[in-house]
Amino acid sequence: MAAEQHTRDNGVKRRHRQEGPQKHVMIFVLSAVLTLIAFAAVAAGDVNPVFAVILLLVMALIQVFVQMGFWMHLKDKGHMMPIIFMLGGFLIAGTCIIMALYWVWWD
Q: Do both 72 and 87 map to the same domain?
C-alpha cells in the first residue's frame, strides 16, 4: 500500500494509509458480480418469483452498502453527518411510502 508521511509539530513522523486502485477494482468487480447474480436470477425464467424478488432485494441492499461505503467514502472518518442525513432521508421516504400504501388500500 502506498503510504504518505506527515510530520507533526513535535517532529514525529506518522504514516497515512491511502487506498490504492486495487481496492477500487476489487469493489467494482464485486458490484459487477452482484449485478450478474441479480440478472441471472431474472433471466433464468424458471426461478420461483418470490425467491427472485427476495434475491433481487438482498442484492440491491448489498449494492447500496457497497456503493455508499466505498464509492461515496462513507466508511471513512468525518462522514457521520452525511450518514445521519441519509438515514433521516430513508426514514422519511419509508414513512411516506408506507403511508401512501396504507392510504391506497384503505377500505
A: no
Full domain range(s) for residue 13: 3-76
Tell whether 10 and 62 lie within a shared domain: yes
> Into how many domains does the chain fold?
2
- Chain-centroid distance, C-alpha 92: 19
Q: Three-state DSSP class for 101?
A: helix
Q: Dump pLDDT digits (tens) for 8-67.
A: 556 666 665 666 777 778 888 988 998 898 888 888 878 888 888 898 889 888 888 888
| Whether 89 and 71 share a structural domain | no
- What CA–CA distance (Å, rounded) separates 89 from 107? 29
User: Cell digits for 67?
Assistant: 456503493
According to DSSP, residue 70 is labeled I
pTM of model > 0.85: no
Q: In angstroms, what CA-CA distances link 55 with 12, 15, 23, 29, 50?
A: 51, 42, 26, 19, 9
- Residue 38's CB is within 10 A of a number of other CB atoms, namely 19
